[in-house]
Amino acid sequence: VVYDPTKHQRRLDLDFPTPEGETILYKAVRYRYVKSVARLLELGVNTNLQVTAMGNDYGNTALHALVTDLHAGEQSSAQLHILSMLLRHPSTDAAIYNGLGKTPYMSVSAKHQKLVS
């Protein structure tokens, strides 16, 4: 019998949430890891998963997290690059409502007109 490692490989679920209800994409976006976000998008992570644990971030997607940071006044080239990647990704739904009843656009539009126009 010849050992075939491909028959015994386990696939890592990149969409599996942490105990806080956050995905690896959500964390990578919050920490501004541009290369990690790019690779996760290449691997086909779900960009629309929402934080499942109760708290301030309840119902947020990675895009919600990013625009929340932008709304708070934090703005870096890494964030803008990630914003572009997320918005260009074909599966990203920018119309998802979070636990506060806001879409990412609603969260950012009041303060950052240049980003949304």
TrEMBL record:
Keywords: ANK repeat. SMART domains: ANK (SM00248). ANK repeats lie at residues 20-52. The keyword Lipid metabolism does not apply. The keyword Nucleotide-binding does not apply. PROSITE patterns: ANK_REPEAT. This is Uncharacterized protein.
